[in-house]
């Protein structure tokens, strides 16, 4: 049962652990408990802070055509995503150690999942399970149901079931 769940999109990561039922009289299965969120401030404000002019051309003062130039925005965005994914992987591994987890479930879109794989390569023996979906905005109960439907965590059930 010792499982950490990390749900990610490009600007936010949510970290959960699977915990025993808080009130075993009413519920018999483990439940997801959210521990923290990690926000990527560089992704949230990258365009505003780094590029005040959203155009990628330079206008001639004589009214001529634009001269294109490459301001490397895509390279900067890729670097922000890479750094964010590294911090997510490090935080997931740290939480897994703290909770004495055996596995880490990572849920993210396919692009972010690829970035996260690099950071989780050195996961020190944790079992890594992946799901290529964006569930970052789901409520905890909806997230639990979705992960259970993909057989990544046990389904919630009432006592006696």
Could you characterize what this model shows?
- Residues 43-75 are annotated as: Disordered.
- Residues 52-61 have a biased composition (Low complexity).
- It holds the Pfam family Host_attach.
- This is Host attachment protein.
- InterPro entries: Host_attachment_protein (IPR019291).
- The protein is α/β, with parallel strands linked by helices and 161 residues long.
- It has a single domain (3-49, 73-149), classed as eRF1 domain 2 (Nucleotidyltransferase, domain 5).
- It contains 4 helices and 7 strands; from the N terminus they run βββαββαβαβα.
- The protein has helices spanning 41-50, 73-98, 110-120, 140-149, and strands at 3-8, 12-19, 31-39, 57-58, 67-68, 103-108, 127-132.
- A 5-stranded mixed β-sheet has the order 3-2-1-6-7, sandwiched between helices. Strands 4-5 form a two-stranded antiparallel sheet.
- Helix 2 packs across helix 3.
- The model is unreliable at 55-60 (pLDDT under 50).
């Amino acid at each position: 049962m010792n499982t950490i769940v990390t749900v990610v999109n490009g600007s936010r990561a949510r970290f959960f652990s699977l915990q025993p039922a808080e009130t075993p009289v009413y519920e018999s299965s483990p439940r997801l408990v959210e521990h923290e969120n990690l926000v990527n401030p560089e992704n949230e404000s990258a365009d505003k802070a780094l590029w005040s002019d959203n155009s990628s051309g330079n206008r001639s003062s004589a009214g001529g055509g634009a001269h294109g130039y490459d301001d490397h925005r895509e390279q900067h965005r890729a670097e922000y995503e890479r750094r964010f994914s590294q911090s997510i992987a490090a935080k997931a591994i740290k939480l897994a150690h703290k909770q004495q987890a055996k596995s880490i479930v990572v849920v993210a879109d396919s692009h972010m999942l690829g970035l996260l794989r690099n950071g989780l390569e050195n996961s020190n023996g944790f079992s890594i399970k992946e799901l290529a979906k964006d569930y970052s905005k789901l409520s905890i109960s909806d997230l639990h149901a979705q992960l259970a439907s993909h057989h990544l965590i046990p389904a919630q059930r009432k006592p006696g079931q």
